[in-house]
Amino acid sequence: MGNDVINQLEAFKQKVKFVEDYSVFYPGISDALMQDPLSDKVNSVASEFKNLVLNHQVKDIDFQHAIQVGLQSFKSMYIDLDTEDRERICHYMEELMDIVGLENSDGLLNQFMYGFNFSYL
């Protein structure tokens, strides 16, 4: 992984998040006051991914741990998120995974979205 990945992560952080996006059937944030705090939390995961890439010795489990920590940061506001907003958070995590070539979250996205990990069923 090199400068291209770093540039993609930086571009991801610059994107305005939680706005209407019908390409993924997202109507936009349900509560406009939550847009900035949610965006900051997503961007924090992108920053951690960047730090890991700069480390050069990164493994999938390191990215998965960053996802886990990032998703846990939403815990205090989870109840205030509607389904579409939670799905959008997962979609952003998947975008970050694609940037770094991470093939799976080890069930973390399912755990966040549905409360359990389907991979253990």
Characterize the structure shown.
59% of the residues lie in helices and 0% in strands. The chain is mainly α. α2 (35-55) packs antiparallel against α3 and α2 (35-55) packs parallel to α4 (83-100).
Can you write the helix and strand succession as a string? HHHHH
| Distance N to C terminus | 34 Å
Q: What's the average pLDDT?
A: 92
Form type: globular
Helix content: 55-70%
CA gyration radius, whole angstroms: 14 Å
Largest sheet: none
In terms of per-residue confidence, which ranges show pLDDT below 50 for 5 or more consecutive residues?
none
Query: Helix- and strand-based class?
Result: mainly alpha
Strand content: under 5%
The tally of helices reads 5
Quantity of strands, as a count: 0
Counting copies of identical and different chains, the oligomeric state is single chain
What features would you highlight for this structure?
mainly alpha; 121 residues; 59% helix; globular
List the helices and strands and how they pair.
Layout: H1 3-14, H2 35-55, H3 60-72, H4 83-100, H5 108-114
Helix pairs in contact: 1-2, 2-3, 2-4
In short:
By secondary structure, the protein is an all-alpha fold. Helix content is 59%, strand content 0%.
